[in-house]
Every structure is written in C-alpha cells, then in structure tokens.
Amino acid sequence: MPDQTECDILIVGAGFSGLIMALEARRRGFGKIVILEKADDIGGTWRENTYPGVACDIPSHLYSMARHPNPDWSSAYAGGAEIWAYLRRVARDEGLYELCHFEQTLKSARWDGTRWQVETEKGAEYSTRVLVSALGPLHVPRIPKVAGADSFPGPAFHSAGWDHGVDLAGKRVAVVGTGASAIQFVPQIARQAAHVTVFQRTAPYVMPRADGPIAPWMRTLHQRFPLSRALRRWLIYRMFEARHAVFRGRPRAVHMAMEMWRKTMEKSITDPALRKALTPPYRIGCKRILSSNDWYPALTRDNVTVIPSGVAKIEGDRLIAEDGTETRADVLIWGTGFHVTDAMRRMRISGEGGKSLARLWVRGMQAHLGTALAGFPNLFFMLGPHTGLGHNSVVLMAEAQAEHIGRLLEGMRAKGIAAVAPRAEAQEAFEAEMDARLASSVWQTGGCTSWYQDHSGRNPTLWPGTAGEYRKRMARAGLDQYRPVPVKEGD
C-alpha cells in the first residue's frame, strides 16, 4: 500500500483557477494545501495549447489576477506563451510550486463520512478535509466520430495537442472546425502551407479587436504608477461588461454589434458566395462570439478554401464533406473544441451514501452557485456549472468563487463545523432560476445549437447575468445557504 498524504485542502488542477484558490486559501491562514496536477508543470490550458497564434480573447490587463497585476504585458491581447510565463512567475513568486504534486491525474474521490479519500492514476493516495475541483471547463479535447478517420495516412492531431514536429510547409492541410482555436491558427498556417481547406459546419460571428503592442513608455507608466494600471483594468472591465447588452437582446447593442461584424466581414470578403457561406444562420450571441483581425483576410488567400459543410467521411487522404465536396490532404487538424457538459462525468467521484457524481450529472450538470453540490460535503468546483461567460473574463468568476469558498471555510473554522454541503432547497432554487433566465436567452432561442448546451438541449454552462452581478451575489452568499454535515464520531 502506498503512503497516504494527509492535507486540509486538496486542489485538483494547477491552471488559473487552481492557483487562485490556493492563494486565497493560504491568504486566509489555511495550511496543508496540496495541488494535484496531471502534467509536469502548472498552467492549465495555457500550458497545453501551443498551436500557432494561440492567444486570449480578453485583454491582458483584465485576464490576470486582481492581486497579481502584470504591468509588463507586451500586447493588448497576450499570446499563450506570455500568459503561461505570467502564471509560472506568480507560482514561483508565491511559492505555489512547493504545493504541487505533478504528474498525478485524479482517478477517484470518495467521501468516507469524514474526509475525502482520493486516488490518482499512478496509485498515490490522499486524505483531505476539503476537495476543490479546478479542472477547468476546456481540458478534454473533442474529436468527432467520422467514418474512416483511422484510414487517414498522414499526421492528424487536435489543436490542443499540436504536433510541432510536423512541418506544414508545402503541405495540403485540412482543418475541421471554425471555433475559437481555428480562427487563431488558420491565418498562421496559411502562410506556410501549400493549401488549407477549412471545413465549416456553421459560420461564427467574428468581431475585430483593438489589438497591438503596448508601447514601452506605457509599460513603464504602469510600473511606476500602479493607479494607471488599475484604471486601465477598470476601463476594460466596464467596456466588456457593457457587451452583455448584446446577449440581453438590447436592440441598439445588437444593431451596433451586427453593423461592426458586417462591415468587418464585407471589408475583407468581396466574393458573394463566400460572404453567404460566412454569414451565420442564427442570431448574434447564440454561439460564442469570436474575435480576430486576420480571420477574414486569411480566407481570401489563394491557398485557402472554405467548404461550408462538415466532414461526412474520410477515405485515405480524401476528406468527403456532407455536401459531397472532396479534397485531398497531407495533414489533418481537428479544431473541434472540447468536451464541456460531460467532461466531469468521466471521473469517479462519490459523495454521501456513495452517491455517484457521474450518475447524478447524467441528467445534466448542476451545482449551487456553480460552486458546490448537495450531497457532496466539502466538495467545491472552480468554474463549475453556470459560471461561463460570453462577454467578460472568467478570471473574475474564479476569484469570486475562491473568495466565497474562503469565507465559508473561515466561517466553518470559527463555528467548529467540520463539513458542509449546500441546502438542497437552495440549490434547487438556484438551478430553477438559471433555467428560467436562460430559457428566454439568445443562447437558447437564437436559432443555434452550441457547446454551451448538453445532450438534452439544456444550457448548464453559462451565467446569464453580468460578471458584476455574480461577484456581488457570491460576496453575499454565506453559511446560511449550507447545511452542516455530521461526521463520524471519533474522527
């Protein structure tokens, strides 16, 4: 039997939200914190996604921790490597590497009536009072089942597992998908590939963004005068909060967004057939709104072809679209996103009475305030159900959750409470509210299906309000929404 590691708080995942939670717990005086990480370094999605052109779609000064601002961002929208370097710097400066147990993938977690008993894929065992899932919603790549995919003779990989050993120069490249990753890497690979064929099932709305380098004098100003940096962050926050009006269906906001998109697309795309293919058949906001300044120009290159159809089957090096179009390729790249609504169901987590998380969530993901689950004492989720945003930085959501969890743990410590779980009625009321608010939203009525929705068509992914509303709500939520859970005597 391997030695068991005991801790007070076990955090699974060393990405943005895991590091935020560790910092918050330590700030409130909690010790014996362990972070489990499946890879050999911290960073989460910014460690794993290394495809050409990878970058954030939220401005750098807002896509960072409030208590760890970075005055040295080199551009308005940081690239993936710079974001990863920022996270590693924070982890080094704060001593978080000392908390990390690397190359340990969660296998199972079981509430034994007193503590969580955790096992990893390598057989390491942990016993913890509090378990925090900080796995993130975008960590399990999704590759669609296409007939004959195994027959493709050349290199084939998902954007999240980019094969840098494959030289694309002079190659015919097939890209399946036109989501957030594809619109970043397609313009990059089109500069070197002989030809790029993009298979698009549904056109996205792609908006321009005010990107570009941040001048050295501006970075110096932010270093010497922190107030200037804080003002920049606040202005970006207010501007991005205002974008929520598009999702609310405010006529003026929708009209302005549509005009901006239309002018951007038509400025680059002059061919009527291509314009038609790139015009989404749903209301703006129904699917994730993407941002790029080079997506539409890239599609006008002589060596880029857009096939407005999904892939029906693959026969050797031939990809056959659902509309019958055929193309040959040397390299196949899946830009098809991630498992979101079913990712957590893959893990073996059992709560009170052996209740299985996987079975419970077969009917759909749920959690009180997107953070805790009735029947699963002392289990918390970072960026859980109903915490995704379509308009602002999820770092704000993660920080609000971490502060909420920290206050709960402080309150429990002060009152001598060993374990808590959300009151069933509080969770039911929250979920009913989410379903009601989302039912009339553009995400449900805008004429599309998206990765926001689960197999039943329900949207368990997004927060329907502004980031500010969520932060205020989490700041008000306290122990009154939780019930104390008796633990076994003698433990």
From TrEMBL:
<dbReference type="Pfam" id="PF13738">
    <property type="entry name" value="Pyr_redox_3"/>
</dbReference>
<protein>
    <submittedName>
        <fullName>NAD(P)/FAD-dependent oxidoreductase</fullName>
    </submittedName>
</protein>
<dbReference type="InterPro" id="IPR036188">
    <property type="entry name" value="FAD/NAD-bd_sf"/>
</dbReference>
<dbReference type="InterPro" id="IPR051209">
    <property type="entry name" value="FAD-bind_Monooxygenase_sf"/>
</dbReference>
